[in-house]
Amino acid sequence: MMSRTFSAHRPLSVQRPASFRLSIDSNTTALLSRRSHPPPSSPGAELETLKVPTYYVSGVQDKGKGVVATQPLPRGAIFLEEQPLFTQDPGCTNSNILSALVNCTRDEQREYFKLANAYKNGGKVLPALAIFRTNSFACDDNQQTAVAMQRRGIFLIAARINHSCTPNVGRVWEPARQMMVFRTLRAVLVGEELCINYVDVLGTKEDRNANLVERFGFECACEACAMQGEELAQSDQRRAAIRRLYDEVSACLKEPTLGMRKAQLALRLLQEEGLALYESTFCFDAFQLCVLVSDFANAKAWVRKAWEASCVSSGPDGLAARTFKMYWANPRAHRLSGTMPRMVLSGPV
Fold first, then answer.
1. Where is the SET domain (predicted)?
2. What is the phi/psi pair of residue 128, to 5°?
3. What is the pLDDT of residues 125-139, one digit of tens each?
4. Could you write out the DSSP letters of every residue in 241-306?
5. Cβ atoms 38, 170 nearer than 8 A
6. Which of 50, 196, 258, 335 is 20 to 30 A from 128, alpha carbon to alpha carbon?
7. Helix, strand or coil, per DSSP, at residue 231
């Protein structure tokens, strides 16, 4: 979805941009870049890095270790910035991992071998490499780099952040600082566990758990997966609808009114599911539909909302936020501007 492909290791939460091509006619195409950055409301002081300890690593029921908030965290707060213990190319071997560990302290080595090993029961992957594959994160902000080619890193604290199908945390790699930055996607309470998503969360419970078992060797027991009966059926239907709408909006270039209705429906379903992920994607879709028909007033409202969402997930200095801010200042700069006959669509609710 927002990340159309997921590696066998920890995926980008939040999020890598995907792109798709929409046909205006048989001879003309327009590339609409879609951002997979998860979300806000009013970026400002609340987005600053908090200066006091905001989390602790502790035992979590049925999950082993986890990361828990020690104080209330506002939406968009940076609670963890971590440099990798080491990084490796995707084709690394067990020997490569052991060589990298030689340069670590004994305490770091001990902590490394305490991390989860999704390959333990199979025994086909040697332990050092198995732990790397299970716990590594992509350290690459180049949107053109294929998932299978991304350099990956180990983060001893971040590796303790567990999965949820309704994550409250997003992350982004900052290459200038060689740092992985984790932000809250919504307000978090004291004592609440901080979670990212390891896999695509827009499948049904059955699909999500099959993916988790295959890649990480466990089934999820988050709030979304704990639902039963009609409640679970409705949740599965909403998530399946969001996945379908993600593709359908991209096919509505010739029908911007229909595309807008679909984007707004997707945003409503995301809210009902409590999913902060993908908000900026659909807001930016709505923006592009507006500029297509020269509805620049509503376009500015939509791209501002996309900017706010990106500020929460990846920070105001992230590529997506900077791009959205540019279009907020001048929506006519978008390549699709004025492509279709003028009409008025609708803005955010």
1. 45-199
2. -60, -45
3. 999 999 999 999 999
4. HHHHHHHHHTT-TT-HHHHHHHHHHHHHHHHHHT--TTHHHHHHHHHHHHHHTT-HHHHHHHHHHH
5. yes
6. 196
7. helix
Cα 67 to Cα 54: distance, rounded to the nearest angstrom: 10
Cα 171 to chain centroid, rounded:
7
DSSP string of 174-219, one letter each residue: ETTTTEEEEEESS-B-TTPBPEE-SS-SSS-HHHHHHHHHHHHS--
CA distance 248 to 266: 10
Q: Encode pLDDT of 225-243 as tens digits.
A: 999 999 999 999 999 999 9
Tell me the C-alpha distance between 349 and 275, whole Å. Answer: 17
Token code pair at residue 34: 């879609």
The answer for residues whose C-beta is within 8 angstroms of residue 326's C-beta and 6 or more apart is: 333
Q: What's the distance, CA 103 to chain centroid?
A: 31
What pLDDT is recorded for position 144?
A: 65
Q: Two tokens at 158?
A: 């971040």
Q: In the chain, what are the domain boundaries?
A: 45-224
DSSP H/E element including 331: none
CA–CA gap between residue 142 and residue 150 (Å, rounded):
9
**Among candidate residues 35, 296, 332, 343, the one with its CA nearest the CA of residue 172:** 35
| Interval 19-32: pLDDT, tens | 322 333 322 223 23
* Among 108, 110, 39, residue whose Cα is nearest residue 279: 39
Q: What percentage of the chain has pLDDT greater than the value 70?
A: 83
Measure CA 183 to chain center.
Answer: 11
Global confidence as pTM = 0.82
What's the CA gap between 45 and 307, in Å, rounded? 16
> CA 121 to CA 66: how far, in whole Å?
22
Which tokens go with 297? 């007033």
Superfamily of domain 45-224: SET domain (2.170.270.10)
Tokens of 19: 């792109």
**pLDDT tens column, 73-108:** 999 999 999 999 999 998 999 999 999 999 999 999
Alpha-carbon gap, residue 226 to 197, rounded angstroms: 16
